[in-house]
Amino acid sequence: MKKILLACSSGMSTSLLVTKMEAHAASIGEEAKIWAVGQDQAKKEMADADVVLIGPQMSFLKGEFQKEAAKYGINVDVIDMMAYGLADGKKAYEQALKLMGDK
Amino acid sequence: MENIDLDTLTPEQINFMLILHSGNARSKIIQAIREYREGNVQEADSLLAQSEEDLKVAHEIHFKMVQKEASGEKVDFALLLMHAEDHLMSTLTMKELVKELLELFKQKNL
């Protein structure tokens, strides 16, 4: 099962994106655990994830998060601007898969 | 994302767009401070200028929303809209403060 962690400063906008990503995963019959946390919890929560996507408000933390994520052998990236701006669950999900190396 | 036509977007998407551009600006503002700390003053100034461009886009979207409401079209109040407004206002505040502070630091040779 794919485990995708989203993080943004308070976790509100990403929670909405989570719902859309879950809906997309379900629609293509894939099992995924997708959840969103605020930036303070992200470093702890990434221990349970296969990939981390962060909101634009946090993009300055990408380097710091990548260092932490490297401990778990997972990738971190900023959510694609178009995916975020249009609240596109499908695009965000596909971005996550690509970062996971399509495991 | 130039000339965004609000009519092609859902209310949810409009709010996400506001958060996106405010968020991009916010990140650049923090990065500006970090660059300044490292002694990269020009980079800091450039990042602040870029953040102002992002805030301009957010402002344009917001302005169109205000115009729509003024012309009688009802705007749905949603938690997400509150969240987007918060992002925009707080980022504008950050930008103003950081701009002033960096000028202060330059003056004091800090």
Summarize the structure.
The complex is a heterodimer of chains A (103) and B (110). Chain A is built from 5 helices and 4 strands; from the N terminus they run βαβαβαβαα. With 103 residues, chain A is of the alpha/beta class.
Model description:
The complex is a heterodimer of chains A (103) and B (110). Chain A has helices spanning 12-27, 39-45, 62-70, 81-85, 89-99; strands spanning 2-8, 32-38, 51-54, 75-78. By secondary structure, chain A is an alpha/beta fold. Chain A has a four-stranded parallel beta sheet, with helices on both faces. In chain A, β3, α3 (62-70) and β4 form a beta-alpha-beta unit. The N and C termini of chain A lie close together (10 Å). The mean pLDDT of chain A is 92. With 110 residues, chain B is mainly α. The termini of chain B are far apart. At the A-B interface, α1 and α4 of A face α1 and α3 of B. Chain A: The modification Phosphocysteine is found at residue 8. Chain A: Residues 1-103 form the PTS EIIB type-3 domain. Chain A: Keywords: Kinase, Phosphoprotein, Phosphotransferase system, Sugar transport, Transferase, Transport.
